[in-house]
Amino acid sequence: VFPKFRPTRWIYFFLTRGNNRVLAQAEILGRLYSTGFEVIQDNFVNGHYFFVTRRIKEPAFDTNPTYGPFIKLRRVGKGGKIIRVYKLRTMHPYAEYLQDYIHHKNHLQNGGKFKDDFRISRSRAILRRFWLDELPMMINVIKGEMKLVGVRPLSEQYFSLYCKELQEKRIRYKPGLIPPYYADLPGTLEEIQASEMRYLDAFAKRPLITQWRYFWKAIYNIIFRKVRSA
Q1: What span, in angstroms and rounded, lies between the C-alpha atoms of 88 and 71?
Q2: I need a labelling partner for 88 at 20 to 30 A (CA). Which of 72, 141, 172, 229 fits?
Q3: Three-state SS at 148
Q4: What is the radius of gyration, based on Cα positions, of the chain?
Q5: 87 φ, ψ to 5°?
Q6: Same domain, 93 and 46
Q7: Same domain membership, residue 198 and residue 105
Q8: Angle between helix 25-34 and 99-106 (nearest 10)
Q9: In the beta sheet, which residues pair with residue 84?
Q10: Mean pLDDT of the 151-156 span
Q11: How far apart are alpha carbons 21 and 65 in whole angstroms?
Q12: pLDDT at position 64, please?
């Protein structure tokens, strides 16, 4: 923590010159992917972490990543425009660059989240379970980039997993803070897409009634069926 905050970072590097710095596995891999490398193989041997990489593209990383509790993530918004979604940090720095790696290695679990996602910090997992990490997205709602009920704002990588028809329907509208997932409770990615398709079709025909119905159904599932985020 000491070397990651601006007020104390210079002291740390002045004393240590950056030597023997401890980094989480997610941050190590995220730094590699952010600079254009792909991990071919990795493994832990006798407490040491080894990996083999290859260069696949030009670097495209944030030269000044945030380590604090508040972050802004790139998400696909209305019209396909990339918006910056506000959240509380629950993952290690640079974890956003590992979506392809996690999906290829661990695939998706029931509910559409990545399986065995080591990017999530254990100390902050409780924030995700009770959606506290998503509360700052109210800023996006106030700014007019999102609405209260709507399809979840997706990263470009996750958005690419969706079928073309749903991609086109999604970008016609603003994403939402409360997604139809919590009303329908789908399991697989295919079921999630079907759920979102039903919501978008209903919203196109009767927007106000659809918003009202999905909002209260989601609230019911959260309160009485105790649905929690993964």
Answers
A1: 6
A2: 172
A3: strand
A4: 19
A5: -150, 165
A6: no
A7: yes
A8: 120
A9: 74
A10: 95
A11: 17
A12: 63
Q: Which residue is it, tokens 């969706």?
A: 162
- The strand ranges marked E within the chain are 37-45, 48-55, 70-76, 82-88, 147-149, 176-178
Q: Which domain holds residue 24?
A: 2-55
Residue range 200-221, pLDDT digits in tens: 999 999 999 999 999 999 999 9
Instruction: For residues 56 and 54, give the distance between their C-alpha atoms in angstroms, rounded to a whole number.
Output: 6
The total number of structural domains in the chain stands at 2
Cβ partners under 8 Å of residue 84, min gap 6: 72, 73, 74, 75
Asked whether residue 81 falls in the same domain as residue 157, the answer is yes
Round to whole Å and give the CA distance between 11 and 14.
Answer: 5
Query: pLDDT, tens digit, for every residue of 27-45?
Result: 899 989 988 999 999 899 9
Judge whether 200 and 230 are in contact, CB under 8 Å: no
Structure tokens at 73: 């993530």
- 42 SS3 class: strand
Tens-digit pLDDT profile for residues 111-122: 888 888 989 888
B/e letters for 52-77, b = 16+ CB within 10 Å, e = fewer, are ebeeeeeeebeeebeeeeebeeebbb
